Amino acid sequence: MWVRVLGSAAGGGFPQWNCACPPCRAVRDGSRPARPRTQSSIAVSADRRRWFLLNASPDVPAQLAAFPALHPAEGSRAVPLEAVLLTDAELDHTLGLLLLREGRGLVVHATEATRDTLREGTGLLRTLEAYCPAEWRPVVPGVDVPLADGLSYRAFDVPTTKRARFGSGSREGRVVGYRLTDERSGRVLVHLPVLQELTPAVCAQLEDCACLLVDGTCWSDDELIGLGLAGRTAREMGHLPISGPGGSLEQLARLPVERRIYVHVNNTNPILLEDAPERRAVEEHGMEVAVDGLELEV
């Protein structure tokens, strides 16, 4: 299968429009090596002709414009975008749906928890349906779902204790990851842009995967607190930090996965600075940091 990282940053992008943290200052003034990034999303295809988006960020128009495979055919408004698969109902993963409203219709794969939040909580789905047909396909964790040309997915539940802005927040399926399988080769990609804890159940989903795109939001648990930008830790916001005891770097470095790539990287994270010691630590552990436009053949 083929994968295009459309956007590799967390909500707000990099630099974030209202932030003057050290990485944002550096990428604006060019004082240190760093590349701007848009908000997290990937595109996946089994044949480079029919594509599926995993999450639809607010930057989706620019992301599609930068990717010729998803340009419209000459003389038409048709693009080879088959469906959007959602990992959750967060705005940075779903606002792009509204920006795709000019199409002939959208197919959206989402759990009941995500669909209900988008319909009854944010009202996003009701707004989208006022502009174009939107077909909801239910995502049930543990069930294999064929997509196209030998490409299939299986979603898995990703437990979170993050406070829900809408609803009770107690339902399963608020956050899921995806195992995408190329049935012809048996190769597996796991997309896990939101991860609070590497539980045994989540680790089991990473077994035998060839490529892992995983949550790299914060370097340290108290990153935003230390910068005076927030009063909650990374874990309290639903993200496992990279560093420290029990951090993702320590745990993921032991996994027998060919490529392990951080996505959904927050603008405050020093791994965005290519000359930072934190970036060197990531690379020394065999991990990579995604950049917009990265293409993978899995």
TrEMBL record:
Kinase is among the record's keywords: no
**Biochemical pathway:** Cofactor biosynthesis; pyrroloquinoline quinone biosynthesis
Question: One Pfam match, by short name?
Answer: Lactamase_B_2
Q: Which UniProt keywords apply?
A: PQQ biosynthesis, Transport
Any one GO biological process: pyrroloquinoline quinone biosynthetic process
Q: Does the keyword Transport apply?
A: yes
Task: Using the record's annotation, list all stretches that form the Metallo-beta-lactamase domain.
Answer: 50-264
Q: What does this protein do?
A: May be involved in the transport of PQQ or its precursor to the periplasm.
Looking up NCBIfam families in the UniProt record yields: PQQ_syn_pqqB
Task: Tell me the protein family, please.
Answer: Belongs to the PqqB family.
Protein name, entry field:
Coenzyme PQQ synthesis protein B
Gene designation per UniProt: pqqB
